[in-house]
Request: fold
Amino acid sequence: MKWIAAFLVSLALGGCASAPAVSDDAVAALMRREQIQGLALAVIEDGKVVKLASYGKRNVERNLPLESNTIMYGASLTKTAFAYMVLQLVDEGRLDLDTPVTRLLPKPLPEYRNQRTDYAPLAGDERWRKLTPRILLTHSGGFANFSWLEPDEKIRIHFDPGSRYAYSGEGIYLLQYILEQGLGLDVAQEMQRRIFDRFGMLNTSMRWRPDFAANLADGYTIDGKMEPHDERSKVSAAGSMDTTIADQARFWAAVQRGEGLSARMRAELVRPQLPIRSRSQFPTLVPEAGAPQEGIAAGLGLVSFQDRSGLGWFKGGHNDSTGNMVVCLDARRRCVVLLANDVRAERIFPELVRMVLGENDMPWRWEYGDKAPQR
Reply:
């Protein structure tokens, strides 16, 4: 039976500390209500995986089931895994979070151009000199989400770096480039060795692997259209990770334990570093207004919030056919990990998170804006 298989997998991944407050029947009912094709879920308590389950289909057209080892798109959950790797470099003294880019690259930033970004347009704006790894990890570099979203598709800085939050994959691209050009690192290899291999994430990679094709999830859009899985060949710290729910459970359990980081760096990862005053996360460059919204702040590669139980933190991942979310409450020592190959799953995330974590103050309206579920 399906629940027996899920129980045995959870034991193999770290034992069962207590019964999760979420039932398979309840999840299935929510999926039927919103016509969600596939969803995978993990619950973590005290650094151990206590529930691992998958529901629905990885491909409806071929009637293929979604399984715990099905390859799914990690999307922006990649950013937190990358941040975790960066903090390992900080622990080793190979990088300082507050070193300006002028000391991290051999040449001035505007002299660089790569396959993604031409930095020459920054030559007339000296604010690029203020950029640091911390600023880039807190999404406060002043960039749009991606430079190709600019009217002229040229990179520009919209506000003083470090002064406010504006979600930016472009900033994460830049930090990846700094590690490659300034430290001479191969980011794919570092992620593989420091994160994926270390935590036993056998089916996770920063680029497409041919063996993934045997058990692969295709995606489903808001109108139910199937989108084939993108075989990403370029390594992107902002979002190229392919993974499974079993592997993500291992990773986030390690994050909760702080494994692979000093206590100081683990605390730095989730520490509220920059108050967020925007009313919603997207669009990224809307003017800020008023006091910080719902007590939320930028951590490093994730977002912290003030929960009724104490510190909470989360990270989402999204594209037109993917919905991912991780929410953790430090005081309760509990996390829920959600991967969906159907973007409509985002409609039920608040209910699923409440089932697992109990009443909480996760800022859904900020995360999803006007599209935030009302139930």
Summary: The radius of gyration is 20 Å. Residues 96-182 form one domain.
